[in-house]
Amino acid sequence: MPTDIDLHLGRRLRRRRRLLGLTQQQLADGVGIRFQQIQKYECGANRISAARLWQLAQALDVPVSYFYDGLSEAASARLAGPSETPRGGGSGGGEVMARKETLDLIRAYYQLGERPRRRLLDLAKSLHGETATV
Fold it and tell me: Which class would CATH give 4-87?
């Protein structure tokens, strides 16, 4: 049975892999394992060893600490229980960042030049009611 840490590491692994536009097969080839093992890591079914975490971090171009980012906040949210979750949309920031739509938007955003990115950000802020800054 996966622990909360295994699940968190798996979610972070999946998020980074998708952000880079890699398939499970491509990542597996990069670290010398089968794609099924990546699947098991991502769903928390298999625990990631320290050596494998190091290889994954190198393949995904992140420090090992990336996988642990947000772990204490996630643990605090679980301990707080459902009565203390933020109101508004029903989904936390981590869930939003794990969505395919969000990752597609981020990829498309960074494919734009600097000026169009700035203009798009200003537009998004104005649609949300914030003041645009340039």
Answer: mainly alpha
